[in-house]
Amino acid sequence: MTSIQDRGAELRRLHDAPELLQVVNVWDAISARVVADLPDTRALATASHSIAATFGYEDGENIPLDLMLDMIGRIVATTDLPVSADLESGYGDAGETIRRAIGVGAVGANLEDRMRPFDEAVEAVRASVRAAEAEGVPFALNARTDVFLRDALPTEHEKTTEAIRRGRAFLDEGATCVFVPGKLDEGTIEQLVGGLGERKLSVIAVPGSVHPQRLQELGVARASYGPWTQRVALTALRNTALELYAGGVLPTGTQPLN
Length: 258
Description:
Blueprint: H1 4-16, E1 21-23, H2 29-36, E2 44-45, H3 48-54, H4 65-76, E3 83-86, H5 94-103, E4 108-112, H6 118-135, E5 140-144, H7 156-172, E6 177-179, H8 186-196, E7 201-204, H9 212-218, E8 222-224, H10 228-245
Parallel strand pairs: 1-8, 2-3, 3-4, 4-5, 5-6, 6-7, 7-8
Helix pairs in contact: 2-4, 5-6, 7-8
């Protein structure tokens, strides 16, 4: 396996590159192996929601951190590609959680602000960056603000303005990019890129989102898919079960990927 320093440097490079970094989120060792084996895969990202669901927990730091980190380590062990870990809001100690994630091989992370007070959110980013520096690992911190997800402000303009304010502060503390999840339209994405800088915005793609090619043209750094990849897999499982119960057969073209 390549060194953790090399994988960290590569993940940072992928965020700075002119091409959009697409990360197809995974949730266990076999989903990681299937995605990592594809020739276009350049990095992996875990989905905390999906890992929690795998073990029967609700999203939102209900899964024990030790269990989450164990699965992240299993995902890292499947590949030489860099892995970014979704660490929710840091489990009460963002710096220590980042340190432990690096300990199982992660070289990047999502960190949610959950619309905490501004100074608290900035301090969590600062602690995360310092923790990675102390470990001596190049680290891609995808600092997330939930201003759109939590409907924290009454107008789109106010939400965009606050996302930029928080995002700039996160970047000033050393975050690699700013993750603004939500079903964003082109106009909002243009404003966010204008306020944060090209290749500094990270978005989530959901059904009906702006096409990846257009995201690249708009200057977005990274697009991920969160729990939606697991939902695609579960939808296929449910539909297959319904077909079998109705007297059908397994789908033609099913591959032995496990």
